[in-house]
Amino acid sequence: MKLDVEFVRSQFPAFSAPSLEGQAFFENAGGSYACGSVIKRLTRYYRERKVQPYYNFDASRIGGEEMDEARARMASMLGVETDEVSFGPSTTQNSYVLAQAFGQMLTPGEAIVVTNQDHEANTGPWRRLAERGVEVREWTIDRDTGHLPVEGLKSLLDEKVRLVCFPHASNVVAEINPVAEITAIAHAAGAFVCVDGVSYAPHGFPDVGAFGADIYLFSSYKTYGPHQGVMVVRRAVGAALPNQGHFFNADCLYKRFTPAGPDHAQIAASAGMADYINALCKHHGAGEGDARKRAKFAHDLMRAHEIELTRPLLDFLGSKNSVRLLGPTRAEARAPTFAMILDEPGNAVAARLAGHGVMCGGGDFYSVRCLQAQGVDPDHGVLRVSFVHYTRREEIDKLIAALDREI
To answer: Model confidence over 58-101: pLDDT tens digits?
Structure first.
């Protein structure tokens, strides 16, 4: 079955906004458009529920129920228990809180593994644990390909390692890492696993339960929702880590790693992401079954469309001697995020592409370590274009034509 892109676009108000007419959006890796069901829920909350939730009067009671609904429905799609899903202000902030918790649990001499393929959010906070006496071991990428070799992890593991942090997909290399395989290797060595899914989740909500990962992080503003971070912390690791919230919330798993009060409206609006997945499945004849199965169907539908659009772009970039593309050259092996090293700084080329109606960006994208590891000057940066399942083939053609003129 092929994705009905026109139906998809009808679910996103941005595509009917006059100010965006004629613009092809290729900065999705920095944040996606919000779907209509999220905007509707967010607007309703601010209009009708903007009070402290969980009291007995109607506006408060219903507001709390909508927050609970969002957590339950997100958990069901991700294949985890409801109380294993937490919401925080951003993935960077969520990672920082988790790092503080691990810092209190680990003892000097114990070790963690981080990569130089990650966005800084899933490496910087963990590296700071070295200040507490924790040994930080770096799992390094291949300089030429950006690939993160599994054998490299195996050489770092021993009885001292308590945690392994890595990305599901890098936001510049874009290679899809084998999460289940890496998790199994780390668990066999006695280590917990923290996966940064920010650059993968926009391409289909992952089955976190099937992966076996202890922690899985992503940003809802990149998965068609409000601007916050979603954090799955499985019960085993959540119970083992010291509480980071108010002491009287220590027995509530989803409150243990949110030291500040959550954004009630954005949590409630997150149920709109599940509404969108349901609408997508129903339109394509797969409205039955549980939420996990529907999420899997939508994931596969999205990915098939993205892979189809990736192939002509990869063919074009492969024909340009002026371009060094980071990451895999096989469509199935990567997320549709393309970081290009050009003679000019990425920002300069992105500015010219805007004149062609192509919205994209240039820079280091908070992946300074990853770029340096591949011999790229972060100040020069890369040109990055990225798309998701609501992108049309005509927009890919427009991008290729613009790139052909400018690079």
So the answer is: 999 999 999 999 999 999 999 999 999 999 999 999 999 999 99
Q: How far is CA 31 from CA 5, 198, 263, 265, 386, in A?
A: 19, 10, 19, 19, 10
The domain boundary, picked from 246, 274, 302, lies at: 274
**Whole-angstrom Cα distance, residue 126 to residue 123?**
5
* Dist CA 60 CA 66 (whole Å): 10
Q: Residue 233 CA to chain centroid, in angstroms?
A: 15
Separation CA 217–CA 380 (nearest Å):
29
Residue where a domain terminates, one of 274, 307, 326: 274
Q: CB-based burial of residue 58 (10 Å sphere; 0-12 exposed, 13-18 middle, 19+ buried)?
A: exposed
- Gap between the Cα atoms of 308 and 184, Å rounded: 31
Q: Cα separation of 382 and 395, whole Å? A: 21
Query: Strand, helix or coil at 101?
Result: helix
The answer to whether 256 and 215 have CB atoms below 8 angstroms apart is: no
Residues 134 and 53 in one domain: yes
Q: Is the dihedral of CA 234, 240, 245, 250 positive or negative?
A: positive
> Rounded to an integer, what distance in angstroms lies between the CA atom of residue 370 and that of residue 135?
21
| Structural domains of the chain, count | 2
- CATH code for the domain in which residue 16 is found: 3.90.1150.10
Residues 259 and 375 in one domain: no
Find the domain containing 59 and state its range: 42-274
SS3 123: coil
Output 27-30 pairs: Cβ under 8 A, ≥24 positions apart.
27/359, 27/360, 27/361, 27/384, 27/385, 27/386, 28/202, 28/222, 28/386, 28/387, 28/388, 28/391, 29/171, 29/199, 29/202, 29/222, 29/337, 29/365, 29/384, 29/386, 30/222, 30/361, 30/365, 30/386
Is residue 239 located within the same domain as residue 325? no
Residue 168 token pair: 């599901």
* Reported pTM: 0.97
Residue 217, exposed/middle/buried by CB under 10 A (0-12, 13-18, 19+)? Answer: buried
Q: What is the pLDDT of residues 31-50, one digit of tens each?
A: 999 999 999 999 999 999 99
Same domain, 365 and 217: no
Q: Do 260 and 137 share a structural domain?
A: yes
Tell me if 296 is assigned to some domain: yes
